[in-house]
Amino acid sequence: MWCNREQSETHTSWSTRAGPRRPPGPSPRSCSGRAPACHPARPVGSRRQTGSVRSRPVILHLDLDAFFTAVEQLHKPSLRGKPVVVGGVGGRGVVSTASYEARAFGVHSAMPTAEARRRCPHAAYLSPRFEAYRDASVRVMDLARAVTPLLEQVSIDEAYLDLTPAHPDATVESVTALVEDLRAGIHAATGLTASVGAGTSKLVAKIHSDLAKPDGLLVVPPGTEAERLAPMSVRAIPGVGPATAARLTAHGVGTVGRLAALDLGEAVALLGKAHGTQLHAFAHGVDDREVVTERAAKSVSAETTFPTDVTDRVTLGRHVRELTARVGRRLRADGLSGRTVVLKVRRHDFSTLTRSTTLDQPTDDDAAVVRHAERLLAGLDVSNGLRLIGVGVSGLSLYTQPDLLDGLLDETLAPVRTTAEDFDRPDAGGADDPDPSPDVELVDTSGPPTGRPTWRPGQDVQHAEHGRGWVQGSGVGRVTVRFEGPGTPVGRVRTFADDDPDLVATDPPRWPAQDDHITDDY
DNA sequence: TCTGGGGTCCTAGGACCC
DNA sequence: TCTGGGGTCCTAGGACCC
């Protein structure tokens, strides 16, 4: 339970503000007003349980403040306290992140860099250095995972944490103390500041991490969600962008409260079935989305915007090959292949077209992707010039079917294709899995073309970074391993080059049957 | 001011099958 | 001869998020 009896009986505000590191700036915003008593232990469905006690979810949303520019300011002290802008620095660039010093001049994300330079000519304009950001992100997320392994990273600088199982007796005070410890730990270890919203759902946590920025914490007591949301603009709801807001405003709906007052039918008529239903629930403070620790990729793509529009098909073909090479590298690095090849172009007038084609078999082969992408490009009129071209692959599966092997396979080794989802669902192979045997694509590993190690499915292995696991599938030049931990979440599937020196056989095989071994121990 | 790059999800129409 | 409905897959576009 979330409630603190004293507080719930005295109707005091449960809000909590940032710790002492908050820089000078806008005055602290707090959860103002009197909160009603929380509902004592009202069950919220059966999905979250710890032992026999059901508790209201305790969800955090952690968001690093002005992340890219903060990393740059840490790495280069001369930038501290000054306006810094990270983004595309070319003629058609846009701002990824503006430091708070730059925001004071009206610079913000997604603004064309040209406009930002006009508003703040003396700022430092930097191209993004994703490697540095990834390093910092990993350090922060590791600290957060020490609080709970139920962490869903939604972007390089954002994550949801579910504290429910680990803290079934959470109170506003205990959540506040825990989060302030985490924020202090992040700052001490990395120099970065994180803002956090805490509440009974992702929605409430997310909205309030935004309101807590920069370097703040807002804890929303259970039971106060709807009334807190009601006066907010509909734009505060994640999923309401410019188009949806305009549509709502045209019908006199500008606040969350007005949206909540609509009939469900009206909301659906206005916004469509899925969107209308979800936003209507959100407006009532209802959000049952779970924190999901692992998610299978659905597509891989790469695109580029030209400095000036391009009409020359030879040039376009060269870009298609380069973009495909980037996509292919990432597919192979993750052991993925896809069935649908997508070509995307943006024309001189900023209109965007996509053309796609679906193959009989998934592929991760550059030549195959290029062939189809070029065919799609050939069907488009480019005479007025393109400003962007992109290549993508979707319909992903975890395993490649190498064309090379077509002739080698005999009927008993006929490949069985499985989707990434089959392997990434959290209970795969677990006690509740109706079919714990891995549905692995079998490929002939008896006669690889080189002297590299040959792995057979079921073999036990160890990997320096990921811990212990067993071989789940093998392909030409690569091996796919399911891990048991530690170091990697239970059930995690990873693919490696089969001569990866960090991949070591454990000998003799002594691995227990996997359905005895995988448990959901959260 | 003139709009990046990487994604996710939804909708809608048409083909096709039963 | 005229005409079903449901389900699935594919394609294209659009909104949205960071």
Could you please describe the fold and organization of this structure?
The protein has 522 residues and is α+β, with helices and mostly antiparallel strands. It folds into 4 domains: 51-223, Alpha-Beta Plaits; 229-283, 5' to 3' exonuclease, C-terminal subdomain (DNA polymerase, domain 1, Orthogonal Bundle); 299-397, DNA polymerase, Y-family, little finger domain (Dna Ligase, domain 1, 2-Layer Sandwich); 405-517, no CATH class. The protein has helices spanning 5-10, 67-75, 100-103, 113-119, 130-147, 172-190, 202-212, 225-229, 242-250, 256-261, 264-271, 273-283, 313-333, 366-378, 420-424, 514-517, and strands at residues 59-64, 84-87, 95-98, 124-126, 151-155, 158-162, 194-199, 217-219, 299-310, 337-347, 352-363, 386-397, 460-463, 467-475, 478-485, 493-497, 503-505. Strands 5-6-1-7-8 form a 5-stranded mixed β-sheet. It has a 5-stranded antiparallel β-sheet with strand order 16-15-14-13-17, with no helix packed on it. Strands 9-12-10-11 form a 4-stranded antiparallel β-sheet. The longest helix is centred in the middle third of the chain and has 21 residues, at 313-333. The protein is globular, with a radius of gyration of 26 Å. The structure holds a DNA duplex (18 and 18 nucleotides). Residues 513-522 have a biased composition (Basic and acidic residues).
